């Protein structure tokens, strides 16, 4: 009974795995890496555990121009096309891998979990080279499972992949760009305004310094009131009442008469 349960579970798992292939959509990796999309290459997410039912069949990646996809037939997809035929066909097959070699778990953060399309510059396999994407434009890709020249199944086409446009280094101008006539006029006006502002600032400072200088001269040249001189025998009286109450007696003596006169 236990053996039958395991066999049933295996059959169900295989059926589910096989059913996943027609619904799988290839996509550019979402991992934070540099150069995931350039003018001649791109990086795809590696399919996870969907080709286990086809361990001995070859899984090919088809790279095609977006405009030729509606015309691609079952026969064309079933017969691997070399990258050298791209100029004629508008598509090619590359990266053949046995279905059993695709892992069932993403080794997160490692390069093996991604597929580099267009990375083989020297083409170690001339027949089906994973060379740089032949031309600029918009592409779409899909995986197909081939048994000889028979396509057993395949994934959906990816979303449109637009290659970056590279700039020829010889066309890049390294010398400083000359300002336009409009920019020259603006710079001249701003310079004139700055000069006027500077003149006004100098004039304001000069006038302010002159006012301070005149104020100091007036202050130092101000006439001082003469000081009140007071004899040693006289008193400064500010009020008559003060003189009455504060008057000191003055005693005089005559030479022959011994009498005192009080004044």
TrEMBL record:
This protein's name: Uroplakin-3b
One term under GO cellular component = membrane
Which InterPro entries does the annotation name?
Answer: Uroplakin-3
Q: Which UniProt keywords apply?
A: Membrane, Signal, Transmembrane, Transmembrane helix
- Kindly indicate where the leader peptide sits in this chain: 1-19
Q: Does the keyword Glycoprotein apply?
A: no
Q: Which gene encodes it?
A: upk3b
Which organism is this entry from? Answer: Xenopus tropicalis
Which stretches are transmembrane?
Answer: 183-207
